[in-house]
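Hi support team,

I'm opening this ticket because the web form for multi-chain structure prediction keeps timing out on my end. I have pasted the exact lines I submitted so you can reproduce it. The total is 683 residues across two entries, so I didn't expect it to be a heavy job. Is there a limit I'm missing, or should I split the entries? Thanks in advance, R.K.
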Amino acid sequence: MERFEDIKSKLIPFDMTNVDTDQIIPKQFLKLIQKTGYGGFLFYDWRFDQDGTPKKEFVLNEPKYNKRQVLLTRDNFGCGSSREHAVWALYDYGIRVVIASSFADIFYNNCFKKGLLPIYLSKDKVQYLFDLAKKDDPVVDISLANQAISISEKTISFDIDLTRKKMLVEGIDEISYTLSFDDQISNYEKASKDADCNKFMVKN
Amino acid sequence: MQKTLFDKIWESHVVIDDNQNESADNSNGPALLYIDRHLVHEVTSPQAFASLKQSGRKVRRPNLTIATTDHNVSTESRSLPIVDEVSKTQLETLSRNCKEFGITIYDMKSPDQGIVHVIGPELGFTLPGTTIVCGDSHTSTHGAFGALAFGIGTSEVEHVLATQCLWMYKPRSFLINIEGNLSKRHAITSKDIILNIIRKIGTDGGTGMVFEYRGDVISELSMEQRMTICNMSIEGGARAGLIAPDKTTFDYLRGREYAPNESELDNLIEFWKSNLKSDENAGFDRVETINVDKLAPQISWGTNPSMVVDITDSVPSPEEYAKNDENKRKLAIRALKYMDLKPGMPMTHVHVDRVFIGSCTNSRLEDLMEASLVVKGRKVSTNVRAMVVPGSQKVKLQAEKIGLDKIFKDAGFEWRESGCSMCLGMNPDILLPGERCASTSNRNFEGRQGSGGRTHLVSPIMAAACAIQGHFVDVRNWL
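Hello R.K., no limit was hit. The queue was backed up. Here is the completed structure from your submission:
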């Protein structure tokens, strides 16, 4: 996993609720067998016409939002399909932080596997950031270590579970970490062989 | 302490609890859960296997994983080659990976091939009290057996392959009581029940939670009907939905390939009966009750599965849907535009171009039997192209044995090979831009069934009646 580095960027005001992963990365791009190269397909059906021409009115196509790293959005971002490709596409495109008033569970979980930081804030705070982005359009400083979003004089703090924070800050490989508990896993397997609830007959 | 069914399954699978996990520094950290069953398909697994290989790791317990090809497969004919080279590569990659890592695969040539959430239960791979994962959000389906089953991303697929475990934050619990009497109301199906639940709680009503469905109605439902309900838990935001196993569950398991043999099963059933249910006074974080006595057939009008009305209703206005929530109002305006619908138009006036009966929600034998009752002796409207895509090769064969294929084909339906098909249109089964479809699937998102396509979610009998009439109808008048 990529280590999360603190971010200085202006916001991309993505004023939508219930953005599902089918929109973030449409199914026609799920046939690849790699983890990279999805950035060009991000929000494909919203970004491009049938003939592949960028739609002018779509927010990501506005030149001023180019290269910004923080996506600001609303409720239930990332709902629907479990496709981790959604996270890969956002990351590949250059997004490093998604701020939303809430996230769907699987998407939220998937973010941490890649090093994308999902930040949930109250609806009021999200609205405040939208107002700010539309008016002054300031640069925001996002520090994971301090769990803080700083905009000129003001600081908004955010919550994140400490384990997840540590994984992101250190870019820990989760599988290596889990395999360090190999003895406990083996003990569980031995113990459960004799437990009724796990006495399954598995073919072959 | 009084415990929920979910608490019990969770606790029996904890390998390391959060307090022992030194890195957590807090009491609400994740627990390492043991995973009993892992289902794999071609779309969300290639990167997991590739990464496993790259790091020189093995699959810890290859016999706890099974694989199938479902998302990409053609439903036209199993004897034709796959035209799409990219799809072909993905299918071949899965076969190669399974061979290399010693995982059983039910591929396109197998008589057991089918949608991953159809074949898991069918093979008896899905058992009560187990933990089940798959790189697919509709893994919640298996909760119908009293298994804790949830969708995961590709990194977690790799994690389970390598360790047979997952780090999980314990979700909260949400009890959904379903009361009433369905016995004289044959036109009201479990699809209508779950659509009605999502309509009430919203697409994020269950975020961070696990549902337990309970009540008189649930007890009366067959396993297949229960699977339809649990399948769409994710559409209400919950990663998992559970139903306590009972006699219906146990009877279903007997004789299935991976299920324990008779004598062992009897012992297990005794154990399951006494352990796999919520304690009488167990507390839930949220409780909702719905009564089905006055439930009408449900139909979606918008672009998420909470945008649902009764078939007797009209298309709602954004204000009616939003109930003073400005963001929801904007969402509804967008949805109406995408769906090309005007508020006030009766749902029964909405005409369709396509009808799709299939998907992990509604492609099992009972779904097809019910739909056939409506179709028998009638003809598909000349303006409609309708298809039936059985959930598995076994479903297809069983249906053909009792002549369902003939009923559908005589009426003008296409009778297809098994796969995910037009639920998400990764294979050639897609809607064209602007086409409108009555679909028994689970998601009506923009472009889900094809870029620019318009989806209305309904039950199999509603979809069947719509195919005949060319527009939506209140199927209660037909049965």
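A quick check on our side: Residues 85-101 of chain B form the longest helix (17 residues). Let us know if the file doesn't open in your viewer.
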